[in-house]
Amino acid sequence: MAHTIQVAKMAQALSKKIENFELVTGGDIKSALKGMDAEFKDWYGLHCNFKVARIPTHIKANYPFPPDYYNPKFFKLAVLYACVKSPSLVYTRTPKNVELLLKIGIPVVWEKHEPINDDSPSRKFFDDKNFIGFVTISPQLLEQYIKHGLSPDKALFVHSGVDLSNFLPYQPKDLARQKLSLPQDEKIVLYSGHLYEHKGIPTLLETARLLPEYKFVLVGGWDNDINRVKQECKNLNLHNVNIVGHVVQSELAAYLYAADVLILPTSKYWHLSETTSPLKLFEYMAVRRPIVASALPTIKTVLRDRENALLAQPDEPLSFKEAIVQLFENPTLASAIAELAFQEVDNFTWDSRVERILQFAVPKLQEIDEGITSPRKNLMRYIKCYLNSAL
Fold it and tell me: Is the pTM above the cut of 0.90?
């Protein structure tokens, strides 16, 4: 899942800037004893060690990050752990964690990538003195939160990022294809990510139908989505679509380097289409391959048509077909937009993202009274909240 990759990469970048940093997440007893191990690092493509506290909320966890977003046991234990550790600041993407931590008096920065509703209980966070700030990935989302009562002084928009070290060293196309046993002479258009319909998979398949002489490679997806897309290919009589399935982060680079063109066909009918900041966009930029992407508002804050990408009309296969053909027929244009995207991707690394967030958060943290997060006080507040059924 993209959000777990984002959490892991943010943690790695934060650990470089903060001396006493910990990532607190879910796990099982075995993973709780191991913390960060080789499997964890490989799964998320991590390159440095930092402390990972795995709260054993599962008998057996199938993935390095189990789905604990709605797990009350995880919330209670994670907040209890924070009380004992008495951190200066907690950074989280989970609203329930924000609520509990603020009740106890631990300073919080909250990141969220979805809109807020008029009746959202999260609005009560905004006026809490320990609510340091809110971070999101699009200017449209930021504006919406401000309209719902968030002070502009506590609001930060910063795009998603990329770990450039995952894409080093540079891989020539022929060597990447040799490594993956892909034909050298085929015209390959590649997509990486989940295979949900709102990601534009129907548009991608229809584009493949319009370009039978091109090979479309899809990397990613859950098993049930892979099976669904395979059936759709069968129904459309498509023989030029290769569905690879999920690969760990450390293996993704070779697939991107093997492509002639990288495609990002996000649908405009997705409820988050105007606010998405896809991780794959910045990964695409990192490998010097030309990009064809949906012309959606947040994507257009990064990509500019015929400058660092070609932008196609969302949900219009003919528009994507024309852009793809143009890149193959005009290699000079393809090379130029790929090179400019690569030059600009330095602005979108996880390290630079974390630097901006710390510059935003640290001065606000310093304004809070010292001594409010002692372990004893935290535990007393935790027990009080528990007795009052707030936990």
Answer: no
